[in-house]
Amino acid sequence: MPQKLVNVAAMPGAERRHLYLPARDRSFWTAEGEQLPLLYLAWGARDFHRQPIPVSRHEGWVCVLIEEGAPTMVVRRQAVRMPAGTLALVGPDCPFGWKGATSGASKFRMWMWRDFTGTMGPADLRASIVSRPLARHERQPFLHLHDLCRREVLRAAGPAGTYLEGCRILFDTTIQRELLDRPAGGEDGSDTVALARSWMRAHLDSHEPIARLCDYLNVSQSTLYRVFAAAEGMSPLSWFHEARMARAHELLVSSALSVKEVAHVLGYEHGNDLSRAFRRRFGETPTTRRARQS
């Protein structure tokens, strides 16, 4: 993923604190004076080209996830383009506004929290904006969390502060992991790759390893291929075959299992299937390798 942007130059200034509300028929909710952890929630389409939002500071911590379009966030006098998939956290002392792209409306999810406990080294997050683009599978936790908040604030009985506080704690932790603790070079995919390696080692008998692995990780095959190849220098399927052959070799030279039994352990239907794969990899049959190393 591209490097995340950390703009710590946006320091407190004369901009007043003000929340510019959208038109009444747009989708949003405000706490309206209630002492709740969540101050503001918004979602849906906005056309910032036709209705720009003036630059101002805010009472709480703003987080926005762009679902569609590419609006421009104005931080003081600097224009920051926010393409689809961008996640941004803006501190209460960082003045910002919105202006739109000429391409039309944008779709987004937005929160404003009263408090935030995350940290990022020495950076003054209260006066900063931190953002990075998210892959599709990385957006799901934030979409789910926004759905939880939206359902709660729209309850007929009104939102419960304890429930929203639980959402805030989950939000803080997710932002810390997915945004603030990410390496400066962007997503390295190390968690995904480690989980993929572990799963494949434990499922060398799988007949559809990549499809099942993607189900397990909840990622697309293209995403898995990209992060895995960047880390390992080969495709996940090639790594799976290498691990399978390494395990076959280990069992042949260190156990009393027959070639047919080793083939069964590794998911081959017939011993000959293992023999052909083994010969392609090592240049000799399993029987020859076993005899030579016994």
From TrEMBL:
Domain HTH araC/xylS-type: 194-292
GO molecular function, one term: DNA-binding transcription factor activity
UniProt entry keywords in alphabetical sequence: DNA-binding, Transcription, Transcription regulation
Domain of life: Bacteria
Residue ranges of coiled coil: none
Gene3D superfamilies, per the entry: Homeodomain-like
Signal sequence, start to end: none
Xref: PANTHER family: HTH-TYPE TRANSCRIPTIONAL ACTIVATOR RHAS-RELATED (PTHR46796)
Protein known as: Exoenzyme S synthesis regulatory protein ExsA
Provenance organism: Luteitalea pratensis
Taxonomic classification: Bacteria, Pseudomonadati, Acidobacteriota, Vicinamibacteria, Vicinamibacterales
Gene: exsA
